[in-house]
Specification:
alpha+beta
């Protein structure tokens, strides 16, 4: 009898471990981020892997538009005052499905591209390149800055009935969480003083 309880206990641990792993496997994961000076601007290239649960995939296939927000904050601490916040930007990327054309559409800032499958569309949503976030002179050369970036599904942009469901269901909370990083801007100042 005692060995049987131990067996049930081990099976329970394995079962809950598999469930917690599968929940963790879905969502948004940061793959890489790069901040670089391009001409007179700071440009961000960021890549995410996005995995949606089957329930959310069905919602997209029914024609509900998903808004993915990518948020970037750059700060620099100062001993004499509050921290400096030279960069606080948000990029909105919309994902929708059009049943008449059997195409997924990804829209961001006036640019719209199509994808044949949801997997292709999620790769496009998660690949942000050439995002101009600040002017070159807004970050001081050689100073250390702290940055944080995240991507999340914006629940406030969903239709009202889905917002109510999203508040009560954990699978709707699709986010990468904040990822912190530090960097030191290095660029050549091309302006004449």
């Amino acid at each position: 009898m005692r060995n049987l309880r131990k067996l049930y206990f081990l099976i329970g641990i394995i079962f809950f471990g598999v469930i917690s792993f599968s929940v963790y496997a879905d969502g948004i994961k940061l793959r890489q981020i790069q901040i670089e000076p391009v001409e007179n601007n700071w440009t961000v290239n960021v890549s995410y892997q996005i995995d949606l649960l089957p329930e959310l995939e069905e919602v997209v296939k029914k024609g509900i538009t998903f808004h993915f927000l990518t948020e970037l904050n750059v700060t620099r601490g100062r001993w004499y005052w509050f921290e400096e916040k030279p960069v606080q930007v948000i990029k909105n990327i919309r994902l929708s499905y059009h049943p008449l054309t059997f195409q997924y559409r990804i829209s961001a800032g006036g640019l719209t591209i199509s994808a044949a499958t949801l997997e292709e569309a999620l790769i496009q949503v998660g690949s942000i390149g050439g995002w101009q976030v600040a002017e070159l002179n807004s970050l001081e050369n050689g100073k250390t800055y702290q940055g944080e970036v995240r991507m999340r599904l914006d629940l406030s942009q969903l239709p009202k009935p889905f917002q109510i469901n999203a508040l009560n269901a954990r699978e709707w909370n699709v986010s990468s969480g904040w990822h912190q990083f530090s960097f030191v801007p290095q660029y050549k100042n091309t302006t004449n003083k």
